[in-house]
């Protein structure tokens, strides 16, 4: 059993891939000897009551009048983590991002003579320019004993930042295959939007930001409908691009064809992944912001659904081109349209991609497999 101190600002019940990853992996690596320091958020007590690890909650809000405004957060993180490290015999200290957690973890690890492991997810490495935050992030990553990268693309970014190759271990994020699986009851989903049995359903979910490519999907769906292909497109999620998407839907006269349904519940997401014929997120890079991996592609694959993905970022680790889905240049609307047309009109291809994706998820991406890979990485660190 591992004895670990884990620092993560994001943890359940906070939504998102990082929060889920931390909760799912560490509960499989040990019990109460794993201590997780994280943010106090609404609903935390219910999560902590049933989670097998020991959870410590802190107020990690930024203080606007402080300079820097994150100073109080760093101080609370450091004080609590140092106190735990001084009173427990941890094998290592883990941080789920370079900032703020990684910098704090490095300081505590060096003061208490323990190894430090920092996770890198991709998008956080490329969106802070080259100023003070970037330099602090580089320092933490370069001085970590091990960096866990979520994709080959993220590893390449780490190498560009000066992290030694021998310190990087690639571990893909995972999915709960008992939740995301084929054969779920989808009764009422298509019917709620009046989708006919003969109409193909394309589904997207995620934060409504421009880099996700949902705007390109609206244009592609409009063109394919004009070609006479019967399809509907459902976009789930909230975000800053909502108004832009609504304008596109109106401008291209696809109201009643493209449906924005807002946030979906945790229970309904795997049902939508089952109900659709294709999952689509033709992401692209915008101002250095890109997709580090794309856990939603793995969730779709776990339901036997093929994906249309963008080539930007680390999606090549989540979607194998022409094997489990199709990857395109998300900036090129012609590529998006052509790929979507293939997936909607070539049933043997769609079935083959979906089955291959499902097989790959079950062998590589179940949380049990991710936990095993993490355990191997820890053992490798201990034997060096």
Task: Describe the fold and architecture.
The chain is built from 16 helices and 13 strands. It is of the alpha/beta class and 384 residues long. The protein folds into two domains: 4-174 and 366-383, 3-Layer(aba) Sandwich (Rossmann fold), CATH 3.40.50; 189-364, Rossmann fold (3-Layer(aba) Sandwich), CATH 3.40.50.2000. The strands form two sheets. It has a seven-stranded parallel β-sheet.
Give a quick summary of the entry.
The protein has helices at residues 17-29, 44-50, 71-87, 98-112, 123-126, 132-142, 152-160, 189-192, 214-226, 242-251, 269-275, 295-302, 315-318, 333-345, 347-364, 367-383, and strands at 4-7, 35-39, 54-58, 92-95, 116-120, 146-149, 168-170, 200-205, 231-236, 258-262, 278-281, 307-310, 325-328.
Helix content class:
40-55%
What is the name of the CATH architecture of the largest domain? Answer: 3-Layer(aba) Sandwich
> What summary fits the major beta sheet?
7 strands, parallel
The CATH class designation of the largest domain is Alpha Beta
- Strand-pairing-aware structural class: alpha/beta
CATH homologous superfamily title of the largest domain: Glycogen Phosphorylase B
Strand tally is 13
Oligomerization state: single chain
Rg value: 22 Å
Lateral arrangement of strands in the main beta sheet: 3-2-1-4-5-6-7
- Listing every helix as H and every strand as E from the N terminus to the C terminus, the arrangement reads EHEHEHEHEHHEHEHEHEHEHEHEHEHHH
Shape: elongated
Count of structural domains: 2
- Return the CATH topology of the largest domain: Rossmann fold
């Amino acid at each position: 059993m591992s004895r670990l101190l884990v620092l993560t600002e994001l943890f359940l019940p906070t939504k998102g891939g990082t929060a889920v990853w931390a909760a799912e992996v560490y509960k499989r690596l040990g019990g109460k000897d794993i201590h997780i320091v994280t943010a106090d958020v609404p609903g935390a007590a219910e999560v902590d009551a049933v989670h097998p690890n020991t959870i410590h909650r802190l107020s990690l809000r930024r203080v606007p009048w402080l300079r820097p405004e994150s100073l109080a957060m760093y101080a609370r993180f450091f004080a609590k983590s140092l106190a735990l490290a001084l009173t427990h015999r941890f094998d290592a200290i883990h941080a789920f991002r370079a900032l703020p957690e990684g910098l704090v973890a490095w300081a505590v690890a060096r003061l208490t003579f323990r190894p430090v492991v920092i996770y890198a997810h991709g998008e956080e490495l490329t969106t802070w320019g080259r100023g003070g935050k970037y330099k602090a992030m580089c320092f933490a990553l370069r001085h970590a004993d091990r960096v866990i990268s979520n994709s080959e693309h993220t590893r390449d970014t780490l190498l560009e930042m000066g992290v030694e190759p021998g310190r990087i271990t690639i571990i893909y994020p995972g999915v709960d295959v008992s939740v995301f699986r084929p054969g779920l009851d989808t009764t009422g989903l298509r019917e709620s939007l009046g989708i006919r049995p003969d109409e193909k359903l394309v589904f997207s979910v995620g934060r409504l930001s421009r880099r996700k490519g949902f705007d390109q999907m609206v244009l592609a769906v409009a063109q394919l409908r004009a070609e006479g292909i019967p399809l509907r497109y459902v976009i789930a999620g909230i975000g800053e691009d909502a108004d832009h998407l609504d304008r596109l839907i109106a401008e291209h006269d696809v109201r009643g064809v493209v449906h924005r349904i807002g946030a979906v519940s945790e229970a309904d997401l795997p049902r939508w992944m089952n109900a659709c014929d294709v999952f689509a997120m033709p992401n692209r890079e915008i101002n250095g912001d890109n997709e580090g991996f794309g856990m939603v592609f793995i969730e779709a694959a776990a339901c036997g659904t093929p994906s249309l993905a963008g080539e930007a970022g680390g999606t090549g680790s989540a979607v194998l081109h022409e094997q489990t889905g199709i990857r395109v240049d998300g900036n090129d609307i012609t590529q998006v349209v052509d790929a979507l047309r293939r997936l909607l009109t070539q049933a043997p291809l769609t079935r083959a991609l979906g089955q291959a994706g499902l097989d790959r998820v079950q062998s590589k991406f179940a949380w049990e497999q991710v936990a095993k890979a993490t355990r191997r990485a820890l053992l490798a660190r201990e034997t060096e």
